């Protein structure tokens, strides 16, 4: 970048910064601009808080669903364990009876 380009870029940047500062501190229109900026910021903050609230609610609902599903799976697993245990005990009894017959 040449020196002339740097000077032009500096002038343009300074002019833009001056315009922004002028708009923010202007007595009439600047105050309106600041009010708009404040309202916009408050709107963003409100939207963010709403999103956080919805996220918390969805988290609570999801947590409840996961807990219900986990309890359901736990019950099914306990039922299967009991079923397998009964089968194993039955087979052990069958093997014992066969062993007694052959002894």
Broad structural category: mainly alpha
Please give the largest β-sheet.
Answer: none
Tertiary shape: rod-shaped
What's the mean pLDDT score? Answer: 82
Number of strands: 0
Roughly how much helix do the residues carry, as a percent range? Answer: over 70%
Q: Could you explain how this protein is built, in words?
A:
The termini are far apart. The protein has helices spanning 3-25, 29-102. It has two helices and no strands. The radius of gyration is 38 Å and the shape is rod-shaped. The longest helix is centred in the middle third of the chain and has 74 residues, at 29-102. The protein has 103 residues and is mostly helical.
What attributes does this structure have?
94% helix; 103 residues; mainly alpha; 0% strand
In short:
This protein is an all-alpha fold.
Strand and helix layout:
Blueprint: H1 3-25, H2 29-102
């Amino acid at each position: 970048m040449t020196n002339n380009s740097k000077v032009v870029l500096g002038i343009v940047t300074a002019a833009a910064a001056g315009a922004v500062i002028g708009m923010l501190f202007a007595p009439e229109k600047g105050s309106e601009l600041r009010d708009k900026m404040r309202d916009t910021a408050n709107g963003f903050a409100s939207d963010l808080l709403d999103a956080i609230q919805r996220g918390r609610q969805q988290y609570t609902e999801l947590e409840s669903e996961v807990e219900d599903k986990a309890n359901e799976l736990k019950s099914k697993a306990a039922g299967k364990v009991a079923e397998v245990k009964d089968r194993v005990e039955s087979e052990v009894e069958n093997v014992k009876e066969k062993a007694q017959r052959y002894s």
